[in-house]
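User: Structure please.
Assistant: Input sequence and predicted structure:
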Amino acid sequence: MKRIGTVIVLLLIVVISSGALYYLWKKNQEDPITYKTEKATTETITKKTVATGSIVPKEEVLIKPNISGIIDEIYVEAGDQIKAGDLIAKIKVVPNASSLTNAKNNIASARTALETAKLTLNNQKSIYDRQKALFEKGVVSANDFDGIQNSFNQADQRVKQEQVNLTNALQNYDIIRTGTTKGLGTAATTQVRSTITGMILDVPVKAGNQVIEANNFNDGTTIATLADVDKMIFEGKVDESEVGKIKEKLPLEITVGAIENKKFQAILDYIAPKGVEENGAIQFEIKGTLATIDSTTFIRAGLSANASIILAKVDSVMALKEALIQYDSKTQKPFVEVATGDQEFENRDVELGISDGIHVEIKSGISKEDKIKVWNQIKKPEIRN
């Protein structure tokens, strides 16, 4: 019985050992990991940062009235193209009672002064006529006659001046009562005209609205907003972490959300010297002037846009995918693994240039014919029943 038990134990040991050996042999027969390789390519690499903002006119002009009153009629609407001097609106004046009374009193005073001056002139004329006849007969000396003639001329001049004063008083009364008067023509204060050639962007008032003229205490009511839509700029903001990388005169690539598959070129003109805190981050305002826009494209003021600020750009250079670059754990120097044989690789240091996050410029270290190991290739997901 003991011999049978020993034989059984030995047989079990043999079976287990055979199974282990077979497993190890099978495992050894599996194919090792096969690394793929890639070659360098020729790329145009652009290093850039992105700013968000909107497209706005370079200059907006606010049209305000020269007199307070009520909008009688509006002749334009948003989107209209107008020229400098075109009529925008007409204002009906609501006269101030106190000013109207003062204007009437000024007219009465001017008329009284004119009548007095006319009486004085008539009196001086009678004296002048008598003295002239005597002077011609030699009774009155030349000196005496000169004094009389001078008094007559002064009286005549006084009448003319008082006539001017009465005319001014009457015009002032008309302006206070109606906002305009005879002789003003296109300068009539009740007529609001454009000061520039451009497009009407907004008309914030309607007929019947009361408007106020600009003065020391009030900016005045805006009747219309105008701009030259052929001169547009990008206004946006960049984070403080990016503002140190940019400078004026850098090129911009503008993409407008509402206009698909089209990019607009611009030049960075302005970087704010002072940042503003927004949502816990410091933002700096930037502005860029858009290049000439073709006539087939119309960019509406206020459209949201993104500006790619081109920090650096290289054309047609040797490049590798960023994923192929490795870094030494001690020196942090970049290197790649170059194939030297069948699944055999060697480390080779490389000098890198600019990167766009996908491709990086290779300045030296490898050639276009070298096969670079894809060292971090992604494994395919296992399929399970």
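The CA atoms of residues 48 and 311 lie 5 Å apart.
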